[in-house]
Amino acid sequence: MNFIFIPFKIIGNSLHKFIRELGNMTCFLARSVFWMFFYPYLIQRIIKQVYFIGVKSTSVVVLTGSFTGMVLALQTYYALAKFGAETSLGPVVALSLIRELGPVISALMVTGCAGSALTAEIGIMRITEQIDALDAMALNPYKYLIIPNLLAGIISLPLLNAIFVVVGIFGGYAVGVGLMSISGGTYFGGIKDFVTMKDIIEGFYKSLSFGILITWIGCYKGYFTGYGAAGVSKATTQAVVLSSVMILVWDYFMTSLLVA
Amino acid sequence: MIKVIDLYKSFNGRKVLQGINLEVEKGQILALIGGSGTGKSVILKLVIGLMKPDEGKILLDNQDISRLKGKSLKRLKERFGIVFQGGALFDSLTVFENVAFPLEEKTKMKASQIRNAVFHELARVGLTGEENKYPAQISGGMRKRVALARCLVMHPEIVLFDEPTTGLDPLTGKAVHNLIRACQKNLNFTAIIVTHEVPGIFSMVDRVAMLYDGKILAADTPEEIKGSKDPVIHQFIHAELEGPIVIK
Ligand SMILES: Nc1ncnc2c1ncn2[C@@H]1O[C@H](COP(=O)(O)OP(=O)(O)O)[C@@H](O)[C@H]1O
Ligand SMILES: [Mg+2]
Predict the structure, then answer these.
(1) Strand pairing partners for B161?
(2) Chain A from 113 to 132: CB within 8 A of any B CB
(3) From CA B141, how far away is CA B137, in angstroms rounded?
(4) Does A229 touch chain B (CB under 8 A)?
(5) Which option is the CATH number for B26-52+69-237: 3.30.1330.30, 3.80.30.20, 3.40.640.10, 3.40.50.300?
């Protein structure tokens, strides 16, 4: 009769594990936020991490931004031409980038570039006892490792998003005005007429939350990595997969919240 | 000075320490020996307050370390120095920056004073001229010496060494031992050395404790341990494959 219970056991166990992980992650974030308010404030380390997360991802964001804008313009032009509405190419491209593609794709790029590196770096510090060394010096590892990354994520993601969107709009311009037959005035005029501050702010909120999400998951997975090189590589994979999935899931909830 | 009483610690139901009793007098060196994975590193981490025991007491000058929290735990950690197994140097910092790190973060010393203190400490461990290299660029023996310098620069009262010579060739290992001994004579700190160097370590320590099966099997002078009739101790220090210790 025991085999009847096996599925329940598996479901129960994985659910239990999932909830526990969620609780641990929440405690981790809560602890980081708590220590954020206490001295010392390591401004230099924050700047260093902004460089690590932000500056190093810039080239990838520029590249993916321009191609996203270009392909978006191509596809949209094709679709709009069916309705004879080619002139609204500018606002459609801009709105898609500002509200959706900018925050999401730039966040995915940062996950690949910086999020994985973050997990690997903190994970290696864990397995080589560097985190214990900090702790043994009576220095708070959260202050030195976690909080600078969280703040750097909050600072750099909106900026990278802005770069992505601007480059994307110009990519769309290159295709729409250069290849197709839309005038530059129509393209930018439409953007000016239809894009509101609300759209920009919503995109900003999204990338802000993705900044927290990526660094939170990256730091957590690295901080609690398993043993040895295998542990770190597993943690890195998990961090990238979980971040990417969470970005898309959270994006849906955020959109439905903001649109409503 | 340090007194460990009936210490228990398990991980996920696996009992690692089962009633450890240990004592270290001020200014003495204790060698902690025992097989791999028996919990020697765990004992050090418990003593320095990086982990909490499940049960038992760790007294430092009659104050229970395992009950301390917040500020008092911080002050306690500042009395200790620890040299981790792999050195635990910060990869992203140079040798100089590694040794300067605790001074910069924990004291109000001026940059020039820090410079002097770091160079003094690097000279003590024989690493003058290596200060601009990164940990990845220096040898294992040098990394251990940098770790020792980083630890000693804060003038700890008690220093814990986790396998300071493991992974080094016999000559470098001996040099590290001599360095530890010389520093201890100079600075007069109390020390616990976790080591596999038996019987090589015996000449430089005051007492030896053998960890086996979650308990301290014996803690005595090196001579007594060397002459011990206990089959486990005899097998371990003579590295015999036949005997009560099962090699997994
Ligand atoms: N943080 C930890 N979590 C789970 N198990 C641990 C942890 N630290 C040590 N252990 C386990 O405790 C045992 C003793 O480890 P350790 O003290 O490192 O041995 P050694 O005597 O070689 O230094 C090992 O089996 C290890 O798996
Ligand atoms: Mg060990």
Answers:
(1) B83, B193
(2) 124-125, 128-130, 132
(3) 12
(4) no
(5) 3.40.50.300
Q: Which of A246, A254, A225, A250 is nearest to A111 (CA)?
A: A246
- pLDDT, tens digit (0-9, with 9 covering 90-100), for B152-168: 999 999 999 999 988 88
Task: Say if residue B247's pLDDT is above 80.
Answer: no
What is the DSSP code (8-state) at residue B55?
Answer: E
Q: Whose CA is nearest to atom 26 of ligand 1?
A: B37
For residue A129, give the nearest of B223, B72, B89 by alpha carbon: B89
Identify the pLDDT of residue A131.
96
Angle B215-B217-B222 (CA atoms, 0-180°, nearest 5)?
A: 135
Contact at CB, A130 and B78, closer than 8 angstroms: no
Q: What is the pLDDT of residues A132-177, one digit of tens each?
A: 999 999 999 999 999 999 999 999 999 999 999 999 999 999 999 9
Atom 14, ligand 1: residue with shortest CA distance: B39
ipTM above 0.95, yes or no: no
Number of domains chain A is built from: 1
Spatial contact of B28 and B190, defined as CB atoms under 8 Å apart: yes
Amino acid at A213: L
Confidence of residue A41 (pLDDT cuts 50, 70, 90): confident
